[in-house]
């Protein structure tokens, strides 16, 4: 979709903004450009819509050399979102959102319909927000309008220059979540500039880590964190890159343990006997459809069985609800956070509503090690055999 071929930008005073850029962004891919201020990441993005002209090399979008395109028409074919949104203060939210369709000559009815559709898509009720002006919106709401405006003419390419950098951390995380939701649905080709490595890791399908005017590493977030290409990259992503990697490592079926399971309707005496025979300290409790209900300890069942010598009662009478659970495919960071939040020694993992296993702290650590080793060896996670140190 976007291809850079040995692109450079040099200024008359001898300043070199970027040099020797050669990389590709696939259709539907979100690539984050990350690095310190002045490293050339914004220059790279602005060359794509010709706000800055390259000194040498070629940039192709959908196979077309953009140097041959009329700049204004080129920009109308791309969505552009900046940090301060750039909304027109004298125009309503609906009018701001329909700016590009208006320039393209769409009818008033068509562009208003499109603006309403997009405001709803980014989580702003057009009946509530459509007639407001930018000054009547919060910072996060203005950023949503900026994204909606960039999507108005359904462009194949989105250029985003630190779009969430001017809002507080809570709003920023919410906007990131909303943008990931939109991207999973729309699959735009996105160049996303940020100085925040955590944002780059969270959003990007791949990351371009910039040094001074050049890309030091262009790879998946997991690889950048697990196998930095240089000392510079390792220093930039930080000494806590192992923790950051948790956010891009999903829970897989092979990471899970299979504890004993009981059902709500199981007889109390039968369940206590099974638990004692297995030597298990606790069991997961499922309902009649094998969906997660909670858990129960062996001690609780044994005590209840003694009190009810005739075996009356069921597991459901003594099971506790399970609050610590996540869907399969959630990140290890979410798993670790859930364990801490609920002070849990393990969390249940579901596929849909079906219980598939539990993740323990030891298995979480093992999953992270497998992920790092898999990238280093270029193999699948399930093919990695970990070395362990036996305690004496």
Automatic annotation (TrEMBL):
GO function terms (MF aspect): ATP binding
Gene3D superfamilies: CBS-domain, P-loop containing nucleotide triphosphate hydrolases
Domain CBS: 251-311
InterPro entries the record matches: AAA+_ATPase, ABC_transporter-like_ATP-bd, ABC_transporter-like_CS, CBS_dom, CBS_dom_sf, Gly-betaine_transp_ATP-bd, P-loop_NTPase
Keywords, in A-Z order: ATP-binding, CBS domain, Nucleotide-binding, Repeat, Transport
Residue intervals of the ABC transporter domain: 2-237
Keyword Repeat: yes
Pfam families: ABC_tran
Keyword DNA-binding (UniProt): no
Recorded family membership: Belongs to the ABC transporter superfamily.
Protein name: Betaine/proline/choline family ABC transporter ATP-binding protein
Species of the source: Streptomyces spirodelae
């Amino acid at each position: 979709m976007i291809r850079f071929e040995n692109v450079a930008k040099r200024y008359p005073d001898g300043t070199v903004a970027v040099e020797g850029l050669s990389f590709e962004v696939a259709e539907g891919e979100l690539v984050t450009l990350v690095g310190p201020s002045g490293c050339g990441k914004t220059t790279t993005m602005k060359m794509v819509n010709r706000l800055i002209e390259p000194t040498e090399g070629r940039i192709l979008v959908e196979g077309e050399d953009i140097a041959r395109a009329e700049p204004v028409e080129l920009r109308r074919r791309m969505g552009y979102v900046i940090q301060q949104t750039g909304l027109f203060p004298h125009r309503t939210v609906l009018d701001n959102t329909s700016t590009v369709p208006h320039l393209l000559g769409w009818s008033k009815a068509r562009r208003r319909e499109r603006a309403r559709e997009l405001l709803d898509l980014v989580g702003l009720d057009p009946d509530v927000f459509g007639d407001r002006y930018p000054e009547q919106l919060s910072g996060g709401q203005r950023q949503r309008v900026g994204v909606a405006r960039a999507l108005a003419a359904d462009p194949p390419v989105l250029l985003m220059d630190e779009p969430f950098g001017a809002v507080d951390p809570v709003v920023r995380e919410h906007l990131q979540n909303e943008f990931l939701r939109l991207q999973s649905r729309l699959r735009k080709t996105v160049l996303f500039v940020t100085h925040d490595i955590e944002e780059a890791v969270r959003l990007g399908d791949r990351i371009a880590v910039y040094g001074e005017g050049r890309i030091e590493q262009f790879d998946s977030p997991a690889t950048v964190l697990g196998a930095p290409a240089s000392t510079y990259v390792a220093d930039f992503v930080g000494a806590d890159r192992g923790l950051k990697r948790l956010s891009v490592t999903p829970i897989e079926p092979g990471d899970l343990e299979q504890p004993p399971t009981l059902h709500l309707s199981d007889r109390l005496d039968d369940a206590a006997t099974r638990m004692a025979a297995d030597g298990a300290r606790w069991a997961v409790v499922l309902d009649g459809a094998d969906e997660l209900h909670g858990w129960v300890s062996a001690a609780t069942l044994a005590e209840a069985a003694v009190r009810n010598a005739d075996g009356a009662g069921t597991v459901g009478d003594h099971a506790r609800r399970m609050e610590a659970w996540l869907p399969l495919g959630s990140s290890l960071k979410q798993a670790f956070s859930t364990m801490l939040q609920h002070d849990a020694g393990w969390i249940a993992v579901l596929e849909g509503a079906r219980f598939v296993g539990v993740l323990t702290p030891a298995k979480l650590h093992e999953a992270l090690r497998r992920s790092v080793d898999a990238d280093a060896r270029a193999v699948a996670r399930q093919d990695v055999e970990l070395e362990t140190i036996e305690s004496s």
